[in-house]
């Protein structure tokens, strides 16, 4: 079995976040996280065992699914902002009935309350619904997280990827930056990513790469000044492998399906490590006609996928292309999110995943660890082990299979008591 390159491992790790995403269509947090290095189980027999990492402790606890956990979450979402500078026509935020009533930036005070949960090796998704770069405290949040050695990734539309923000991302070694790019031409891109400017986004991404390039050359000269023998390790660094690893995320729909190969070409030109193509989620009936799950589009998707793979193969480096399989989720008896995930909304209220709007705590009034093992999280875990699951889980793709988004999860009255 060939071992994936570092950049592709990072990208896969991030997909567990991006695919789970604020749309709620996701997979188990651990599915994509084989990239992790240095686990507590890799000690040599004659040495004392390393202390168990939070990751491993969580893995152990998943075997018995206790209501109270010794481990902390391995995936934390911090919804940096639910405000947005754009209004993409397929986004949940663009529909009044599915929109959060209040849109705001997460305060630094709320974000700081997450610190006790940020364990080395855990993942922080520094976005949720909305555009994270709208938050003026974004860089400070990134700094706090990276000081705690957390894997940080986020999705952005890149319109606000200014020079200072790009520099901060490179200097602080943000791990992954996924850019929403859902078109292969200016016309389609600007129609889907409604309100964006094609030229501006490309210019922002090229400048971001320039900043990465100069960081690599600084590293190289620092090393060769000190010890020329090891300088070759830096000369082997390619821009697509250097943090923040850049990727494109393409939301595929009827209108832009044909342009996937063009977007792959663009991604390679931008030295992205890969591109992930996600099928559009029908978050509102008006989007039904755009769904690529339509059987009519299957043969078209197959042909486009083949063409996209051919373009990906022309890259001079390993390009990680992920295309939709259309057979995404299978029914399941249990979902592990309540044992793994902690989703903090812009206002500090906590959900157990990106699909549920059930409030399990509030960081304005409680400590994060108090919420994680609080009564509501414990009751939620207990219900998940029973046949009678919480209301939102009974309609969730994670347990039911398929890719349906049930809009009832947006209505408060839908939620039963735990
Ligand atoms: C909700 S956005 C939030 C982050 C940021 N504003 C951005 O656009 O990257 C996260 C991702 O969801 C994608 N998305 C939005 N609406 C979608 C839908 N109905 N189905 C599938 N993906 C969608 C966006 O294209 C983006 O890549
Ligand atoms: S940029 Fe992101 S959050 Fe804003 S409307 Fe588009 S998909 Fe939604
Ligand atoms: S709603 Fe329930 S089943 Fe769906 S992801 Fe959340 S916890 Fe899991």
Question: Helix and strand layout, with pairings?
Answer:
Layout: H1 6-20, H2 54-64, E1 75-78, H3 108-112, E2 123-125, H4 138-147, E3 151-156, H5 163-171, E4 176-180, H6 186-192, H7 198-226, H8 231-235, E5 245-252, H9 260-269, E6 274-279, H10 298-312, E7 320-322, H11 337-340, E8 341-344, E9 349-351, E10 361-362, H12 368-372, H13 375-385, H14 391-394, H15 397-400
Parallel strand pairs: 1-2, 1-8, 2-3, 3-4, 4-5, 5-6, 6-7
Antiparallel strand pairs: 8-9, 9-10
S-adenosylmethionine binds at residues 21-23, 84, 88, 90-91, 127, 129, 131, 155-157, 180, 182, 249, 251, 278, 280-281, 283.
How many angstroms does the end-to-end distance come to?
45 Å
Major sheet summary line: 10 strands, mixed
Heterogens: S-adenosylmethionine, iron/sulfur cluster
Oligomer: single chain
Identify the strand order in the major beta sheet.
7-6-5-4-3-2-1-8-9-10
Please give the count of helices.
15
What is the helix/strand order?
HHEHEHEHEHHHEHEHEHEEEHHHH
Helix content: 25-40%
Indicate the proportion of strand residues. Answer: 5-15%
By secondary-structure content and strand pairing, the structural class works out as alpha/beta
Give me the count of strands: 10
Rg (CA only): 21 Å
| Mean pLDDT across residues | 86
Q: State the low-pLDDT regions, or none.
A: 1-10, 16-20, 22-28, 30-44, 230-235
Shape verdict: globular
């Amino acid at each position: 079995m060939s071992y994936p390159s570092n950049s592709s491992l990072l990208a896969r790790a991030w997909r567990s976040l991006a695919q789970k995403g604020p749309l709620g269509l996701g997979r188990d947090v651990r599915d994509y996280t084989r990239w992790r290095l240095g686990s507590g189980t890799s000690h040599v027999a004659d040495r004392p065992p390393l202390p168990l990492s939070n990751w491993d402790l969580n893995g152990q606890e998943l075997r018995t699914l206790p209501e109270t956990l010794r481990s902390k979450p391995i995936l934390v979402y911090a919804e940096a902002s639910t405000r947005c500078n754009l209004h993409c026509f397929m986004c949940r935020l663009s529909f009044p009935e599915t929109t959060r009533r209040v849109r705001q930036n997460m305060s630094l005070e709320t974000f700081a309350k997450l610190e006790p949960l940020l364990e080395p090796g855990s993942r922080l998704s520094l976005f949720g619904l909305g555009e994270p770069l709208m938050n003026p405290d974004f860089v400070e949040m990134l700094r706090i997280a990276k000081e705690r050695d957390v894997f940080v990734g986020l999705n952005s539309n890149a319109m606000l990827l200014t020079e200072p923000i790009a520099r901060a991302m490179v200097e602080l070694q943000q791990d992954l930056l996924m850019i929403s790019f859902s078109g292969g031409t200016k016309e389609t891109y600007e129609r889907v990513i409604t309100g964006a400017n094609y030229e501006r986004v490309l210019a922002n991404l090229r400048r971001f790469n320039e900043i990465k390039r100069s960081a690599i050359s600084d590293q190289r000269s620092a090393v060769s000044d000190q010890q020329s023998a090891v300088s070759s390790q830096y000369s082997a660094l390619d821009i697509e492998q250097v943090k923040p690893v850049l990727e494109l995320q393409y939301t595929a729909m009827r209108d832009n399906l044909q342009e996937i190969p063009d977007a792959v070409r663009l991604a390679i030109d931008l030295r992205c490590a890969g591109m992930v193509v996600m099928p559009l989620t029908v978050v509102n009936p008006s989007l039904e006609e755009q769904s690529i799950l339509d059987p009519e589009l299957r043969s078209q998707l197959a042909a486009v996928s083949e063409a996209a793979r051919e373009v990906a193969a022309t890259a001079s480096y390993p390009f990680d292309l992920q295309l939709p399989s259309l057979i995404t989720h299978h029914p399941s008896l249990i979902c592990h999110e309540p044992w793994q995930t902690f989703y903090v909304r812009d206002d500090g209220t906590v959900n157990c995943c990106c699909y549920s709007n059930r409030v399990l705590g509030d960081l304005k009034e409680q400590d994060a660890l108090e919420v994680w093992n609080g009564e509501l999280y414990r009751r939620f875990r207990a219900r998940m082990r029973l046949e009678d699951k919480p209301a939102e889980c009974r309609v969730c793709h994670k347990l039911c299979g398929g890719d349906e988004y049930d809009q009832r999860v947006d209505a408060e009255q839908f939620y039963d008591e735990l």
